[in-house]
Amino acid sequence: MKKLLYPLAFALTAFLFVYSCSAEEDTTSPPTVQQPTPEPEPPAPTQYTLTVTAGEGGTVSSEGGTYDEGTEVTITATPAEGYVFVGWEGSDSTEASLSVTLGANTTLNALFERIFYSVSKNAINIYDIINSTDGIYDEINTMASLGAGVPSQFYFNYGTEEYLIFPGVAACVGREDENNNECGIENNFETEKLPPLVFKKNNEQWDFDSYDTDGGMWTGRNFDILNTSFAISDANEMTPANWNGPLIYGEYTPNGIDFKEVTSYEEYSFFHDVALGDLNMDGWMDVVGTTFYGPNLPGGKLPDGAVFGVFIQKEDGTFEMKNDMLNYPLLEDGSRLFQGVPLGLGIKNIYGDERPEIVTYFSDNLRGSNNFNQINLNNNPIIVFEYDSNKEQFIPNFNDQSINKEIYQTTSVDIFDLNNDGFMDIVASMEGQEGDKFDIWLGRENKKFTYQGRLDKKGDATFIDVNLDGYLDMILRSTTYKLAVLEDKVTTSQGGVCPSYLGDPQCLDWINSLKQGINLKSLILLNDGNGNFNELDEDLIIKDVAAKWLIPYLKDNKLHFVGVNSHKEDENGFDAIREIMFGDINTFDYTFYDITLNIF
User: Fold this and answer.
1) Residue 285 contacts residue 229 (beta carbons within 8 Å)
2) In 3D, which of 146, 148, 167, 345 has the Cα closest to residue 259?
3) 325 versus 179: which is more confidently predicted?
4) pTM
5) What order of strands is seen across the sheet that includes strand 256-261?
6) Among 129, 212, 231, 562, which is disulfide-ready with 259 (CB 3.0 to 4.6 Å)?
7) CA-based angle 538:540:541, to the nearest 5?
């Protein structure tokens, strides 16, 4: 038994020893493992806001955004048509493309400025013109025709082809006869008619195109344009047959502008105004001129017997005088009611029938009485000659309103629907002691007209819808010396406006005065839709233009004025006319100025 207990005790003791050792090992901490310290998170980048806007007249390539500090951003400003980029609000840069490195919140605004006008120029040497006309033109008559005092030059276009027509002006300024008499109205000597000069626009510049001896004139006065045709009147004051000249007809052809004379030499007269229309409805354009009188003419030599010169175009292109197509009112004693006829007229289908009417504006040159057939004709100037198929004549239709204003001598008549009411309206241009005027009449029912008002006339009118509102505006052709804006405008020693006459030695700096600025404001009269015309509200000052006359026209819905100088342009404003008249010249360029307006 004892022997059995000894092994059991030994086993128990061994078990207790092993267990004790295992418990001590379990409570002992394992060795520590060293871990690396993690790097801290980098801070978020600083960001800034770029704000980009565009002012009126352009766009920008980006409106900006939020960018990290130091980011470079490029913005480009692009002007709209008729504007120019001028700079950035928020930056001193004047470049349209701007690169910005962001270091702060930034605001940029692209600035644009409206281009109110642009001027294109090109020069033509006088001797190129002289040589091109086979010597018909020389230094003096070229100067006179391109810079004539009468605004007979005009713009004419057919499709995309554009022309400037300069009727011949057979000036004899600076010439003397064998007795040293200067050429002029009082001391006339033989002066040949001059053909018109035609300039054509090529690649946006005006080039000499042609001349045509069949269109020769002494003094081009007025013109009329209808479709592809035009007519020019010659109110001649300086010829062998003083105060008598031709009517000229012109038309576009595929070969250019073709001219021909309407009148024979025996039919020459003082044709101040001219109008076009198909009076006999045969498809050919007819011509009427005013006034018509002369020693060899039916009207007699004196204006008292004057009539309108009616010339009907035949199939072969020639013209036949048909003055008996107009019926002039007679008094009981057989004498004519009117003592002469006015210097202005127009032709238009104003009554809406098939045939056009002849519209006139008579001053009070009545014989005997102001009443005719119970109609008061005192200051009741509108008379419309309407075709009577029974009489086969144009008979007078009198208006029914007298006005409390003196009627001056009429120089032209324009006929348009000014207020878009379906009735034709009348604008009469007049010259009088109180200055030149426009009278405006609005058409109404019963073939009558109501007086609208009177405007001061600062030039001859062309009717164009320049602001594209659907109403015709009145745009004036004028001399630029009336438009000079600065106080140092050159005048003569007597205080007159330069140039007082061609080559005036007191006006040698006239060209420099013009180039300092002219204001076109008074040449643009906007129609309010009711037949009232008002000047532009703001000045429209054009610089560096030395044209003597400005001719308006519309192209691509923009108003243009084109003109040509009469002087050599050098830094001292030297007057080439003086050089032509009193000294030799080697070169002399005519500069054509074409002004494009961007105001509407």
Assistant:
1) yes
2) 167
3) 325
4) 0.81
5) 220-226, 229-234, 247-253, 256-261
6) 212
7) 135
